[in-house]
Design brief:
alpha+beta, 479 residues, 42% helix
């Protein structure tokens, strides 16, 4: 049996059995670890000798598991592009839970490790390319300081996967504070109020224990998730990130970024930008993300109504509606703070916001690269003649605020990444890994993205705009 140097937890399995089903990890003939995230393993207090051993390989591959470990697939529902459906982990498996020395519990989650009862017609497998993308993007988001699930290891399966073509197969070992989604609550609400209450109590204890002694912990839960998601989307917007598929089943109650599929970072600034091949209507466009998460939060509120006020649905609706109305205020406040810092100003006033909006308008009309433009301005440069007048107004406002220009530029450099995960660069790297097995450029990209604000990365491929005349990279879910 596989021996673990820590106690394997399975707290989620204390919930009603309707919320999950046992799952079998596919036994691949020749799995091989391709990537190891030692920095993550160390940060969560994993035993590194074990993590770098064949024993951890066996564990992650589901070989000879101890009887105390029972992998499961979690059930949930979801509004996918606005249409409600019953879902569940179709190609993801919760292998175990791990508690570090600070008593923080993490899910150890496998993605692409075989079909589950929720796979429907899917094969439960994943391509190397899609798993590389999630690994790279989650490390990039962590480097930017944005809450996210993270990838602990990536394995080649030794098999192929059929999608639009034949791909090498792979599975990912990822970590998150949990994988409880808005869609999880939608599913629980369909079961019974008792199952819903059980899930809510579990979620509060795991994520927001300060609510346990409050008068209405379920309304408090809604308010916490609203706050976390408003902050998360504001952070996405500030770095030009587009999730691409913000269904309710891809929205975590912990406020972490989860389920990297057709995601991308902006090239040219445009609120209507969509990279995803499946988002034909622009529902999940860059500029619509705040509206969509607010819509998703309304679905969470609907699910929680029986708990918020068991005696009066009308009063529950009033309480939930009041909480939801705070979303815009929280989001705008956080978004405004972040964007003002991107132009080196810590005073959020009408003139500062006008400068931000004028700059974004110019960037859109001139089709300027979002990240590169802010990065150039943070060096005191003017990346386009159209911005000369804007810079003059900016300098005048600094003088009005008694802000030192050099200090403002320092603030800008701390809030504008030099590098981002640029899909047109990363696609070439994934091609090289697939065709030659050469990981050198992949490791370089990961190491670089872990330090996005490091000025020494200026001139790196990931710091440069997409070449003029080339089309944006279309992204796919990889399912």
């Amino acid at each position: 049996m596989t021996k673990l140097p820590w106690e394997a937890l399975k707290t989620y399995q204390h919930l009603d059995s309707s919320m999950f089903k046992t799952a079998d990890i596919k036994q691949f003939a020749q799995p091989q670890r391709l990537l190891s995230n030692t920095a993550l393993a160390q940060s969560i207090d994993f035993d590194l000798d074990w993590f770098n051993s064949s024993a951890s390989d066996a564990f992650f591959c589901g070989k000879n598991l101890d009887a105390s470990i029972q992998p499961i697939a979690q059930a949930y529902a979801g509004h996918q592009f606005g249409h409600f459906t019953i879902l569940g982990d179709g190609r993801a498996i919760l292998l175990s839970e791990y508690k570090n020395k600070n008593d923080h519990i993490y899910d150890i989650h496998l993605k692409g490790a075989g079909p589950t009862i929720y796979s429907r017609r899917g094969d439960g497998l994943a391509t190397l390319r899609s798993m590389l993308k999630e690994y790279v993007y989650s490390e990039a988001m962590h480097g930017l300081g944005i809450p996210t699930s993270r990838s602990l290891a990536l394995f080649l399966t030794g098999e192929t996967v059929q999608r639009e073509r034949v791909h090498p197969g792979a599975f990912l070992v990822r970590m998150a504070s949990s994988h409880i989604r808005i869609g999880t609550f939608q599913f629980a609400r369909l079961q019974s109020n008792e199952v819903l209450k059980q899930l809510a109590n579990y979620s509060i204890k795991r994520h927001y224990p300060d609510l346990l002694d409050t008068d209405n912990p379920y309304l408090g839960l809604l308010e916490k998730v609203i706050d976390q998601q408003a902050s998360l989307i504001a952070q996405w917007m500030s770095v030009g990130f587009i999730h691409g598929v913000m269904n309710t089943d891809n929205s975590s109650i912990s406020g972490e970024t989860i389920d990297y599929g057709p995601c991308a970072f902006l090239d040219e600034y445009d609120l209507h930008t969509v990279f995803s091949s499946i988002d034909q209507s622009g529902r999940y466009a860059y500029g619509n993300q705040a509206n969509i998460i607010q819509w998703n939060l309304c679905r969470l509120a609907e699910s929680l109504l029986p708990l918020i006020n068991p005696d009066s649905e009308d009063q529950a609706v009033e309480q939930a509606t009041a909480a939801l109305k705070n979303f815009s205020t929280i989001f705008e406040q956080k978004r405004n703070q972040l964007f003002c810092k991107k132009i080196g100003i810590d005073v959020v006033d009408e003139k500062s916001l006008q400068l931000v909006n004028d700059l974004l308008t110019l960037m859109q009309s001139e089709k300027l690269d979002f990240t590169h433009t802010f990065q150039q301005l943070s060096m005191g440069l003017v990346p386009h003649l159209a911005l000369l007048a804007w810079q003059s107004h900016w300098e005048k406002h600094l003088n009005y605020l008694n802000h030192n220009k050099e200090e403002a530029l320092v603030v800008m450099r701390s809030n504008n990444p030099v590098v981002i995960a640029r899909n047109h660069v990363l696609e070439e790297i994934y091609n090289k890994v697939e065709s030659t097995g050469d990981l050198s450029k992949l490791h370089d990209a990961i190491d670089t993205l872990r330090q996005p604000y490091n000025q020494s990365n200026l001139g790196h491929h990931l710091s440069l705009p997409r070449p003029t005349g080339t089309k944006p990279t279309v992204t796919y879910c990889g399912t």
